Amino acid sequence: MSARFAELAWQRTAMGEISLRRRRDPVLETDVYEVKLGEEFLMSSLFTVAEIELATLGLAAVAGHGLRVLVGGLGLGYTALAVLDDPRIASLEVVDALDAVIDWHRRGLLPVSGQLVGDARTSLVHDDFFARMRAVPEPDRRYDAILVDIDHSPRHLLSSTHSDFYAVDGLRRVARHLAPGGAFALWSDDPPDAAFEAVLSGVFASSAAHVVTFPNPLTGGSSANSVYVATSPR
Fold first, then answer.
1. Each residue's pLDDT tens digit, 39-61
2. Can you say how many angstroms the Cα of residue 96 is from the centroid of all Cα atoms in its chain?
3. d(Cα 197, Cα 210) in Å, to the nearest integer?
4. Rg, C-alpha atoms of the chain
5. Phi, then psi, of 94 in degrees rounded to 5
6. Which of 7, 52, 60, 115 has the lowest tally of Cβ within 10 angstroms?
7. Strand 221-231 relative to strand 178-188: parallel, antiparallel, unpaired?
């Protein structure tokens, strides 16, 4: 059994102080991994259903094999691991703006780290995902799926510098990075946003908002996240 509480890593970053903690939940009898940015809780290993569904729903919208996938936001690694569970994947590139988060996985601090780092299809890249989307893609660097879990939602951002990504021009730039028939999928902590759905439908050939519900052991009830999925023309 692990200690009741341990701070596994801590680092100052341009976005603030980020820390990775592990605590033992005596009721659930399991280790819980949590990430904090300053005093704000960013993610917990208690709630990974929607992160996994981000990959499942996004990849379900893509046909074919030998798929190239880009994930924006590494976090605890559950979206990336779900991508690798799809046998059609040829390569997975995971981009995170915080080198500290990538280091956690390279040091094997999280339950899925060994599987991610040990898979030859995976590349963990320290970069600004949003800046990459603003750049003109090289012809051989388009993706079959782009999956994003960075901000809390299209309205609740970790940084105001991300706001252009969720507008028409920003999503058009995302579409440029997709191969024909490719899919863009986005995780959100908020219910489906009609205004954002309208922006998606104006850019992509098809789009939908999925509500993902999951048990909440902290409340004894259930909680929900949203996953938006949009596809480019073939």
1. 788 899 999 999 999 999 999 99
2. 10
3. 11
4. 17
5. -115, 120
6. 7
7. antiparallel
